[in-house]
Amino acid sequence: MIYPEWRQQLSRSLHLSRSKPEAKYFQVASITTDGAPALRTMVFRDHAPRSNSLLSVTDIRSEKCEQWKALAEAALHWYFVKSREQYRLRCRVSLIHHNEAGRIVCSGHELLQNIHQDGVIEASESACAGETLKLASSIFKARWEGLSSSAKASFYCPAPKSAKLSGEGDKINSDKINSDEINSDEASKKSSEGAGTKREGDQAQNEQDTISPHFAVVVFHPFEVDYLDLKSRPHTRNLYSLEQTKWLKQSVNP
Ligand SMILES: Cc1cc2nc3c(=O)[nH]c(=O)nc-3n(C[C@H](O)[C@H](O)[C@H](O)COP(=O)(O)O)c2cc1C
């Protein structure tokens, strides 16, 4: 499969910064239900297999998921300090998660539509079936399995932005930051070393084995990419846009 130029460049930028964990952080914008911009940092987890789509994980209870259920569009911003390159992507958004009955569902835009450039796969929240279900399930399971143990545990924490009850210590929160966002082996080691009583240990093991009902995979399907290279003189700026299944390129002044 031949990937579009921007995707090859992005792989190169990631490769050049592979020693920097922070190179996998991008800024992700959504629109709130009252029309305001909302922004946060997320971790790039990989591309979906054989596609240009980008994967992140999140808690389905978070506000951004509500926003994407209402308007399944996102803007991503990524700056690679080392190679001095900026990428800005406009994307449609799909969410893969469990419904209340514990079934894997796909919500958002016409789900996974662009995931394989050689075909259109359709799904909706209520009907994630056949090939789409297979694809969604395999992405969902692989992303869960790819998390560190403390990252997995973070999906059993109280809902994001819910008021803290007295007795809910800071430890939970510091674990959450370590794990969910940074996904370091160190965080994973600490969590297993810190396992206290047997009961806590058993609970932790269950959490490892079972996909949390709050776990969600966010699939970003890019349809426009604005690339800026500050190393070159004059600076290089290329605009890429997806027309049907073909990526068009336009070189513009920065
Ligand atoms: C370095 C870093 C990485 C993060 N990675 C993620 C991530 O991959 N997924 C996620 O849901 N939140 C991540 N967060 C937390 C979000 O930025 C945000 O605070 C949280 O998801 C709640 O956002 P919301 O209220 O807009 O839904 C990260 C934060 C930081 C600082």
TrEMBL record:
Superkingdom classification of source: Bacteria
Gene3D superfamilies found in the cross-reference section: Electron Transport, Fmn-binding Protein, Chain A
Comp. bias (Basic and acidic residues): 167-179, 186-202
Segments for region (Disordered): 161-208
Domain Pyridoxamine 5'-phosphate oxidase Alr4036 family FMN-binding: 4-96
Name of the protein this chain belongs to: Pyridoxamine 5'-phosphate oxidase Alr4036 family FMN-binding domain-containing protein
Lineage of the organism: Bacteria, Pseudomonadati, Pseudomonadota, Gammaproteobacteria, Alteromonadales
